[in-house]
Amino acid sequence: MKRLFITLGLVFTLSASVSAQDIYYEVRRSAQENIDNPATNPIVKQFSIFKLEALNYMAIKMKEVMPDSTAEFLDHEALALNTFLTSYTASLMESKDEPAAYQVKVIKAYMDASYSNPLFNDSDKEMVLAYYKNGNSMTRFSLDTDWRRAILAARESMKKLK
């Protein structure tokens, strides 16, 4: 798990150092690289698959729903997605010695933050909630998420838990 946290932190650091117009592509490239690498930890791979799907979904929906939006908007959302997943991983690591009931509350706080902050209000709930409803997934989040609002909501929920 420590290796997972370090890897996700490294991905976040790399994307934070890239110029604003390239953040989306850097986060996407890094996720694809993790997926393609056979030596990647399975948990990191699972996070990367979710990240790639969320980024692809975001780009497609933005073209459909918000055709006048800028690349900068997509970059901000990609960075927030990366931050959200890094924060989620850190929270899981911090709660590993806590009772199982507390760990469930941590997971639920992030799930609720994702679900409660839609970006597009997509009516295709089956698709956008595929990960959210999958009890076997480590990334039980909605694809239709405003990641900037979700990270703020998750942080607020975590403050209340502590």
**Approximate helicity band:** 55-70%
Structural class: mainly alpha
**Chain-averaged pLDDT:** 90
> Can you tell me the number of structural domains?
1
The DSSP helix count reads: 7
Low-confidence runs: none
Describe the largest sheet: none
Q: Helix-strand pattern, N to C?
A: HHHHHHH
Strand composition percent: under 5%
- Rg on CA atoms, Å: 15 Å
Question: What distance separates the N and C termini?
Answer: 22 Å
Shape: globular
Describe the protein in words.
The chain is an all-alpha fold and 162 residues long. The protein has one domain (2-161). It is built from 7 helices and no strands. It has helices at 2-16, 23-36, 42-65, 71-94, 100-115, 125-128, 147-161. α1 (2-16) packs antiparallel against α4 (71-94), α2 runs antiparallel to α3 and α4 packs parallel to α7. The chain is globular, with a radius of gyration of 15 Å. The mean pLDDT is 90.
Features:
globular, mainly alpha, single chain, 162 residues
SSE topology sketch:
Blueprint: H1 2-16, H2 23-36, H3 42-65, H4 71-94, H5 100-115, H6 125-128, H7 147-161
Task: Describe the structure in brief.
This protein is mainly α and 162 residues long. It has seven helices and no strands.
